[in-house]
Known about the structure:
With 205 residues, this protein is an alpha+beta fold. Helices cover 33% and strands 20% of the residues. The radius of gyration is 26 Å and the shape is globular. The chain binds zinc ion. Zinc ion is lined by residues 110, 112-113, 115, 158, 160-161, 163. Its cofactor is Zn(2+). InterPro entries: Met_Sox_Rdtase_MsrB, Met_Sox_Rdtase_MsrB_dom, Mss4-like_sf.
Amino acid sequence: MRFPxxxxxxxxxxxxxxxxxxxxxxxxxIQPLARGTVLKSMPTIPFLxxxxxxxxxSSSNMSHPVQxxxxxxxxxxxxxxxxxxxxxxTEAPFVGKYDKHMPEEGVYTCAGCxxxxxxxxxxxxxGCGWPAYFDNIPGAVTRxxxxxxxxxRTEIVCSNCxxxxxxxxxxxxxxxxxxxxxxxxxxxxxxxxxxxxxxxTDSKV
Length: 205
Ligand SMILES: [Zn+2]
């Protein structure tokens, strides 16, 4: 009949509860810190850029009429344009210049080489945070299979210079003629309110 004495029980309880208390205190003190870190790093979206970010460029060995070295591209593109267009980066969602841009007419051109890519009437509201188009100007955009990150996606690049534009997603159920969504980084494009450039290119092809 040897029961632990009351002080021993008390000590055990105290040790246990103290551990628990300490653990939860630690948890609490870590929590805001971690949250702070996540919030602080949100504007640059390191997670997203590591997810969609720079990867070996599969299209660099493809033939595109416009060929430039990285140094030449750096001379004509700003840092972010270079990261997205030449290193296959992805801009943060909902902040791009053309995300909510819905002009009646005009043309979106490649920010790297000015080739016309999309017409204003190809654009639709997808709500995904990036400019969305259901089709492109014929021949302006080239597709590649992108197998990075353990999934299969379709990368789209400018046919003229090989600049990375974004990805194409199919069968998402948008009410568009193609049921495709060209999810394009705003920074990869410029906009011209005139359609003339496109007509010139169309007649050339
Ligand atoms: Zn281009």
